[in-house]
Write a structure and sequence with these properties.
Blueprint (H helix, E strand, L loop, with lengths): L15 E4 L4 H10 L22 H11 L3 E4 L1 E4 L2 E8 L5 E4 L8 H29 L4 H11 L2 H14 L3 H17 L4 H21 L13 E5 L4 H10 L3 E4 L7 H9 L3 E3 L4 H4 L5 E5 L4 E4 L3 H21 L16 E5 L3 H9 L4 E6 L2 H6 L5 H15 L3 E5 L25 H6 L1 H14 L5 E5 L5 H20 L10 E5 L2 H5 L1 H5 L4 E4 L1 H9 L17 H16 L4 E3 L10 H7 L3 E4 L4 H9 L3 H11 L5 H12 L1
Parallel strand pairs: 1-5, 4-6, 6-7, 7-8, 11-12, 11-18, 12-13, 13-14, 14-15, 15-16, 16-17, 17-18
Antiparallel strand pairs: 2-10, 3-8, 4-9, 9-10
Length: 636
């Protein structure tokens, strides 16, 4: 019987306090220094103090202060505008006692732990079933948490701490999961950093059960805007069903699972709002501007009128954009730009097709590994790739080879001090030929409908691309000798995401069948700025003249070899970048399915001749701010 009340379980990452542990504060500081948030944050949130409980005089002063319009600036995580009422939550932290247990308590503590795992597993299965019906994109994330919860290695670590060090079940769970989380937080890969949140969620599920927390579902109405320190995908899914229209959080980033889900289902969201839970109280009237990353409290009448007009404009725009799904993606003077979608699941592909995508420009195959924490078999990969290819057919689909490194290799190689500059991407695959050849054979078998493209990530030398091509040819020979059907002319492309690859683009263009530019990595490698580091946000800017000049070099090389060149990073969907990229000569743009119609509308509203002149002038400017100002003034 579950200990959690309500029709559905409402679980979050509660903070924990360790009694008697003098290293807790030090550990928190170490995590903070690593450049990622230390997940000791409350997520479930009790209602703020009601105004009626205040003395009359203070009550009056508080009402006056709170009626003044205030604006909070965060990071825009999912576009849209919502006017609604805040539902703000907070909880007391769980206290973990670190005093040793008595030897005779060992078996009882192990049984407590195993019972918690059993109950939380059943609860997760119920949540996954709900996800499969209402938000399929969430199910793989929850299944990954289910895997973590039942990982035999983790269970053994917890049991050993109880038996050998006389830890209580609570203390052992905290110690084990915090150590795993620390490894994730110190990686350079943003996806794995988000997995640290998954570990925290699993830990808190177990601790909540052991602490007998009876967590009820918060009261959410049809105009509710949830305010919390952070939010999980299962929360987003559940709250949306109850009527949540938007959310704002203190933690997380645009690549978090919750943010990705919000964009997929069209829920406006703003993240990275410092101390927002203490500054916005339940019942406060709010405006969420997911385009600008702004939260407005106690909006004045003129502000409300402004945003209501914008809502009407957006609704009108949505009705108009619907017609663009079946219209060709070309400029007013007939210049064609292929508009593709990024997709990682069969459901993503279906959504992309209904939005008028002309193909799938990026499938991140390494998500199979990250979700399951192991390398799928060749047969499992073949089945998955084949399903994706069949869903996309007759449109082409681009499968990117595993983009993994020492920070997500599951013990295949030792940890590196700087995985971002280590054995990752194609370097990793060439080192681990068995993994690479198994994936190549799976991709080749899935290419039997002749609509699959294969893309190689993290290229820095011509030699490594040569080696990869020779391995692909050897795999073709193996399948051919076995009488298996595959696309012998499978297009093989180069992912251009390092300055080195950009500067040897002419040489790579002689070997590759297509280019795809990963602007996220290209920007962070060129500018030496980690895109996940909040301190470097002003520096990490794809409009930097150095990035634009590298883009021009890559595009010119592609044109010289008559191969298509795509942009598949966040930059491809940026409103101020569309005309610039088209004018520079990009032949394909690959974006999230939710951005397809917006981008197509912009393409169909411009002239290529004008865009070309705009791009040429932008390339002469010296700073990012000059580029941005020019593009905004020239396109509005």
């Amino acid at each position: 019987m579950s200990r959690y009340s309500g029709a559905h379980t409402y679980l979050h990452s509660f903070p924990t306090t360790t009694v008697g542990d003098t290293n807790a504060g030090q550990a928190k500081q170490q995590h903070s220094d690593a450049g990622a948030p230390f997940h000791e944050s409350p997520q479930y949130i009790l209602p703020a103090v009601q105004e009626s409980s205040l003395p009359p005089q203070k009550h009056k002063r508080r009402r006056t202060a709170h009626r003044k319009e205030k604006r909070f600036k965060g990071i825009p995580a999912s576009p849209g505008i919502i006017i609604g009422t805040a539902v703000t939550f907070a909880v007391e932290p769980i206290t973990i006692h670190t005093n040793p247990i008595e030897p005779e308590q060992i078996q009882a503590e192990i049984e407590r732990f195993l019972h918690a795992v059993q109950e939380c597993t059943a609860d997760l299965h119920r949540t996954i079933a709900m996800a499969n019906e209402e938000a399929p994109v969430v199910a793989p994330i929850l299944e990954a948490q289910l895997f973590m919860l039942n990982d035999p290695a983790v269970c053994a670590m917890v049991s050993n701490l109880i038996q050998q060090r006389l830890y209580s079940a609570d203390h052992a769970i905290q110690e084990t999961f915090d150590s795993q989380q620390a490894l994730m937080l110190h990686t350079s890969d943003p996806y794995l950093r988000e997995r640290a949140t998954d570990i925290e969620n699993v830990k808190q599920r177990l601790l909540n059960f052991l602490a007998h927390r009876n967590i009820s579902i918060p009261t959410i109405h049809n105009d509710s805007i949830v305010i919390s320190e952070s939010i999980t995908p299962s929360d987003v899914m559940l709250f949306r069903k109850q009527g949540m229209k938007a959310f704002a959080t203190e933690l997380s980033g645009i690549t978090s699972h919750a943010a990705i889900l919000a964009r997929s289902v069209g829920i406006p969201a703003v993240v990275g709002l410092a101390n927002v839970c203490k500054r916005i109280h339940t019942g406060t009237q709010l405006i969420i501007d997911g385009f600008a990353g702004i939260v407005i409290t106690h909006p004045q009448p003129e502000t409300l009128e402004h945003y209501r007009q914008r809502q009407q404009e957006l609704e009108h725009k949505a009705r108009i954009l619907g017609k663009y799904a079946t219209l060709p993606s070309q400029t007013l003077d007939g210049h064609k730009v292929a508009l593709l979608a990024n997709a990682d699941t069969p459901e993503d592909i279906e959504l992309a097709r209904t939005s008028g995508a002309e193909g799938i420009g990026l499938v991140r195959t390494e998500l199979q590994l990250l979700e399951r924490q192991l390398v799928p078999t060749e047969h499992e990969q073949e089945q998955f790739y084949r399903e994706l290819a069949e869903r996309a057919y007759p449109l082409h689909i681009t499968l990117r080879a595993f983009d993994i490194g020492s920070d997500k290799s599951f013990g295949l190689i030792s940890n590196e001090p700087n995985p971002a500059l280590g054995l990752r991407g194609l370097r990793f695959l060439l080192k681990h030929r068995a993994i690479f050849t198994a994936q190549i054979r799976a991709v080749l078998r899935a290419s039997c409908h002749r609509n699959v493209r294969f893309m190689l990530p993290m290229i820095t030398t011509v030699q490594e691309f040569h080696k990869a091509l020779s391995i692909i040819e050897a795999c073709k020979t193996t399948l051919r000798d076995a009488g298996e059907d595959f696309d012998n002319a499978l297009p093989v492309g180069a992912m251009i995401e390092t300055p080195a690859a950009a500067l040897i683009a002419h040489e790579l263009g002689a070997l590759a069948d297509f280019f795809s530019i990963g602007t996220n990595d290209l920007t962070q490698y060129t500018l030496a700025a980690d895109r996940m580091n909040a301190h470097l946000t002003p520096i990490y800017d794809t409009f930097h003249p150095a990035i634009l000049r590298l883009l021009r070099t890559i595009i010119e090389a592609a044109h010289a070899h008559n191969i298509p060149v795509a942009v598949c990073g966040e930059f491809a969907a940026h409103a101020a970048a569309t005309e610039l990229l088209v004018g520079m000569g990009i032949s394909e743009l690959s974006v999230a399915h939710t951005s397809l119609l917006d981008v197509k509308k912009r393409i169909r509203g411009m002239r290529f001749s004008t865009a070309h002149a705009l791009a040429n002038h932008a390339l002469t400017l010296a700073t990012s701010s000059e580029v941005r100002k020019y593009l905004i003034s020239a396109t509005t």
